[in-house]
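Next comes the chain:
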Amino acid sequence: AVYFRDCFKHAFENREKGKIKVSAEHDSEGDLIILRVSDNTRGLPGEFIVGNSGKLGTRLISQLTKQLDGELSAYNDGGAVVEISFRRSGKTGPGNSHLTDR
């Protein structure tokens, strides 16, 4: 919900139309889950560093990622893309609790 609000507040500003796509997928073993939200906006600003903006929305997404012992990525690909990847609960193996820019 935070990401959608930010899309409408910032990214879709002064635009009549825009697209937001939400997807979830898993690897072939079903162990790694990837949640992805993307849009067709002007993209993330060049100085954007994932998990480091200090804004409430970014802090909430970063906290969720940490709770999932996951990895957060944000990059531009025809618009802004934010991904959270994490291992399914109950599966063995280390999670990636660090944040990365793509």
User: Anything to note?
Assistant: The longest strand covers residues 32-39. The radius of gyration is 14 Å. The CA atoms of residues 26 and 33 lie 4 Å apart.
